[in-house]
Amino acid sequence: MELRALKHFAEVVRQGSFTAAADALFVTQPTVSKMVQALEEELGAPLLARDEGRRKRGVTPTDAGRLVYARAQEMLATETLLRDDLEALGDLTRGSLTIGVPPLGASLVAPAIAAFHKQWPGVELKLLESGARAVERALREGELDVGICLAPVADDMEGIPICDYPLHLLAPRDGRWRGRTEVRLAELAEEPFLLYGETFQLNETIAQACRTVGFTPRLACRSSQWDLIVTLVECGMGIALLPAHYGERLDRRRFVSIPLTEPEIRWQLVASWRRSAQLSRAARAWVDATRGFFGRAAKGQRPPETSRKAPVE
Question: pTM for the whole thing?
Fold first, then answer.
């Protein structure tokens, strides 16, 4: 059984079509088809259910295909680990590292990524930018080496604290909240909420807190871009709950950023990896570098920042 055939098959499952898999692998579509067909003949079972009527030749794995896909992920991960270790027996001069980064935490993590690249310039860095929920799922499926998740992480994950900030109410400066030094969460029951994209675990954290004080957030809009949410707040579309790290840095002539109470909601990020994962040399180097870079966060101090300037002027 060739690892190359498993790689082609796994990519078809991930992409849901032969054409998209071929594009991702930079090969022709017939090449992918032949590889998958040869694998099916070797294993003696159909691995994909093909729907020839669909324009893009969509496919889904059969029961046998799902089993082979799971094992293929393990084998391909082991191959990557072996290649990285062989290529860097001495210094970590080569290799690759795939990191999941939620957009809301990108500015906090960027200095650590830049510092890692400066120390290990030969390691190719690949970033998956998605919400914390999607990052955690990708970690479990073996698509990422490491990722930035929202605390608390599950028991099957290891983690290093990155930051711990309270959420603030973000509203236009000239609105009803002007002059307040704190706001009870229950006071927001009638407000339209601007929440984050569906892959953001922070949405559920906010929703659970609201339910504890007797209401469900009234959704006005979702966005995966926190700066767009800030702009929509300024336009009067609704209010947002933003980590203090960001809210306190916005232009006070245009916004108010007010601490929430009863209850206080915390935004805690953790650099995570699977407890059972066989980390590559590059991943182990990232864990060590991250532990040193964000060591102050574990002691309740602010993590390093790139600038104190407000990101939205």
Answer: 0.67
Greatest CA separation for the chain: 72
Q: To which residue do tokens 């099916």 refer? A: 40
Q: Which of 148, 91, 149, 147 shows the shortest CA–CA distance to 123?
A: 91
- CA-to-CA dists, residue 187 to 98, 182, 217, 254, 292, angstroms: 42, 11, 11, 22, 41
> Residue 31 to residues 9, 11, 21, 47, 58: CA-CA distances in angstroms?
11, 13, 10, 17, 17
Residues 6 or more apart whose CB falls under 8 angstroms from that of 272 comprise 136, 139, 146, 147, 148, 149, 153, 157, 158, 159, 160
Q: Which residues of 214-235 are buried (b: 16+ CB within 10 A; e: fewer)?
A: eeebeeeeebbebeebbebbbe
pLDDT in tens, 33-84: 999 999 989 999 999 987 655 444 578 999 999 999 998 888 888 887 777 6
CA proximity to 310, closest of 266, 251, 244: 251
171 touches 239 (CB < 8 A)? yes
